[in-house]
Amino acid sequence: MNKKQVRTILDTMGDMFPDAHCELNHTNPFELTIAVLLSAQCTDETVNKVTATLFQKYKRPEDYLAVPLEELEQDIRRIGLFRNKAKNIQALCALLLDKYGGEVPQLHEQLVELPGVGRKTANVVISNAFGVPAIAVDTHVERVSKRLGMVNLKDSVLEVEKKLTKLVPKEEWTLTHHRLIFFGRYHCKAQNPQCAACPLADVCREGKKRMKSASHRKPII
């Protein structure tokens, strides 16, 4: 894919979703880290419902460690994998207090060492909390970038990230991450993509396939 094609895709998504942003509710880097950790295999909508009360009860790392693990599990039980996530949250808070004075570190290599924090979570935190350009690859980003031919279908999540950071200007990494998510969440959905009304259907693998299939269907008389 050449730069002109990439520019067309980025500008089109920009026109469609000019206000794309992180939809996880948070007021500081610590809350964002907890929210992203909770969001693995779970919708942002569900996470926001849980954190609405969670963040009122737990303000600092010390608060999460002041309760039994079972109590924290109950507080997040609507979240998928809640037992494992509760364990990771307490381990993460202990490490923050032990190593970083209770503050979320700002370096990517430090973030990925925190329990429950992978590369995607670290990229979300550094870009949204600390203003460091990054492209976090979630299911939406991976699906959309593969459908549009920006990356190869068999590329791993890490390969997708590396290729996107080469294709997209660095100053647009974070914004592109949000727009890819909005495009995938509200338009190019996994099961029912809106191909017929998509301005990028002509460059999309999935769009071309579906439109071709539709054109071959015999009209019902």
From TrEMBL:
Q: Which residues cross the membrane?
A: none
What are this entry's molecular-function GO terms? 4 iron, 4 sulfur cluster binding; class I DNA-(apurinic or apyrimidinic site) endonuclease activity; DNA binding; DNA N-glycosylase activity; metal ion binding
Top-level taxonomic group: Bacteria
> EC number(s) on record?
4.2.99.18
Where in the numbering of this chain does the HhH-GPD domain appear?
38-186
**Is Lyase included in the keywords of this UniProt record?**
yes
**Per its UniProt record, what InterPro entries does this chain match?**
DNA_glycosylase, Endonuclease-III-like_CS2, Endonuclease3_FeS-loop_motif, HhH-GPD_domain, HhH_base_excis_C, HhH_motif, Nth
Reactions this protein catalyses = 2'-deoxyribonucleotide-(2'-deoxyribose 5'-phosphate)-2'-deoxyribonucleotide-DNA = a 3'-end 2'-deoxyribonucleotide-(2,3-dehydro-2,3-deoxyribose 5'-phosphate)-DNA + a 5'-end 5'-phospho-2'-deoxyribonucleoside-DNA + H(+)
Similarity field? Belongs to the Nth/MutY family.
The protein here is known as Endonuclease III
Question: What species is given as this protein's source?
Answer: Paenibacillus xerothermodurans
- Print the organism lineage: Bacteria, Bacillati, Bacillota, Bacilli, Bacillales
**Which gene codes for it?**
nth
